[in-house]
Amino acid sequence: MADFVGAVDQGTTSTRFMIFDHGGNVKGVHQLEHEQILPQAGWVEHNPAEIWERTRAVIETALTKENLQSSDLAALGITNQRETTVVWNKKSGRPYYNAIVWQDTRTDRIASALERAGQGDVIRQKAGLPPATYFSGGKIQWILENVDGVRAAADAGEAIFGNTDSWLLWNLTGGVDGGVHVTDPTNASRTMLMDLETLQWDDELLGYFDIPRQMLPQILPSSHPGLYGTSRSGGPLGGEVALSGDLGDQQAATVGQVCFAVGEAKNTYGTGNFLLYNTGHDVVRSKHGLLTTVCYKFGEEATVYALEGSIAVTGSAVQWLRDQLGIISGAAESESLAAQVPDAGGIYFVPAFSGLFAPYWRSDARGAIVGLSRFNTNAHLARATLESICYQTRDVVEAMHQDSGVALDVLRVDGGITANKLCMQLQADILGVPVSKPVVAETTALGAAYAAGLAVGFWKSTDELKKNWNEDLRWQPEWSEDQREKGYAGWKKAVERTLDWVDVG
């Protein structure tokens, strides 16, 4: 049997290919960024053709660097930025428009109209989501209404939709030459179009967005032997590698963190933050601004669900310090700059660049820095940026406590920002619970590998995966309770200042 499993991790800012051994250790990796296209305020796009080319390149380069062949891979899994919407022609393989990214807010009027029409509660009940710019349904509707020829092509069965997992799976399995048009329930549950109970596209929801059913991919389990087809010769993997795992990125990180028991939670720090709390086989409907989502579905086993707190801007706020303000040269410098001061000097930064996601769901909000005086420096702003990541996480943890009635004992963390030890210490201080980081912090790719490997017997069970998890670092809270509550009260006050800034009609 082959010794490794591969995983494509197609993220918001980059695509990477990682190769794991049976112990969950990284054997090889290659990563490439892609362009962030910002046509106007609130619009965020990617070039799907560039993403596919980057995917080809990272697979080929990682295998070459490690002197491996595709035959050394027992299976391949895919994980992806969720909600990011691609519509393409299945005969030519060409996208009709750039991918509309999950952060994009151009569909705010579509979301507002759904609420006004009284359809929001139906979407919440069936799909587990509030009407919001975040999700795919409104993005598909926008493309159908605003891009010439797409509506007619969709009606004719030629224009098809997918999140980036479907786009890559279609290309990896042959594209115009027999490519498989599929997705999994974790990605489908991010569209506002799938019924959480049946795991099928829902005609009533499709009608709200006027989306033809034939545009949509077939929904298949997140892990199943060869269910997504096999790679085609001529592609980056050559022929006959089983594509047997597909998970949206945050669900993949939950699997990579082996949060298989009810009540276990993880927080991924990426472009945004995403905290998932395993609710088992129960569909728990949030009353406090969280999302109900599919956590994973392995083969014929019962579906596992989760509550999710989705935060739009965390790591991308650090990127903003680098790219737009120029006060740091790289993400690592945010830690050293913030460490020059003992606190944020009374300022709060609420990075509501795309409105506020969980638990507020306010597309009318915009970013604000409050409490400024002449005393403040770029070091205070850097520290306030790190604190904003942690305060937004506390907002979500508070909502999860209210929905579940269970207090968090420890927060398992992963993703790029976990390399920032000051930020992780602030997270423990602001939450008041320990923060635990595993040895393999890039658990998103690992979770996709686990899903693929389980499907083909590379790993026998989730119990085997749990043995692979090892803690690397743990941060204990150091703030007093008074300091913690005073800081959080200031944060809540700052959030209020961001609201009602944009008229979304």
Concise overview:
This protein has helices at residues 48-65, 108-116, 120-127, 136-146, 150-155, 164-172, 185-188, 203-209, 249-256, 315-325, 331-338, 378-404, 421-431, 443-456, 462-466, 481-498, and strands spanning 4-10, 14-20, 26-33, 45-46, 73-80, 85-89, 99-100, 159-163, 182-183, 194-195, 200-201, 218-219, 243-248, 265-269, 273-280, 291-296, 304-311, 348-350, 368-370, 411-415, 435-438, 471-475. The chain has 505 residues and is α/β, with parallel strands linked by helices. The mean pLDDT is 93.
Salient structural properties:
single chain, 505 residues, alpha/beta, seven-stranded mixed sheet, five-stranded mixed sheet, 16 helices, 34% helix
Question: If you had to describe this structure to a student in words, what would you say it looks like?
Answer:
It is a single chain. The chain has 505 residues and is α/β, with parallel strands linked by helices. The protein has 16 helices and 22 strands. It has helices at 48-65, 108-116, 120-127, 136-146, 150-155, 164-172, 185-188, 203-209, 249-256, 315-325, 331-338, 378-404, 421-431, 443-456, 462-466, 481-498, and strands at residues 4-10, 14-20, 26-33, 45-46, 73-80, 85-89, 99-100, 159-163, 182-183, 194-195, 200-201, 218-219, 243-248, 265-269, 273-280, 291-296, 304-311, 348-350, 368-370, 411-415, 435-438, 471-475. A seven-stranded mixed beta sheet has the order 16-17-15-14-20-21-22. The protein has a five-stranded mixed beta sheet with strand order 3-2-1-5-13, with helices on both faces. It has a two-stranded antiparallel sheet with strand order 4-7. Helix 9 (249-256) crosses helix 14. The radius of gyration is 22 Å and the shape is globular.
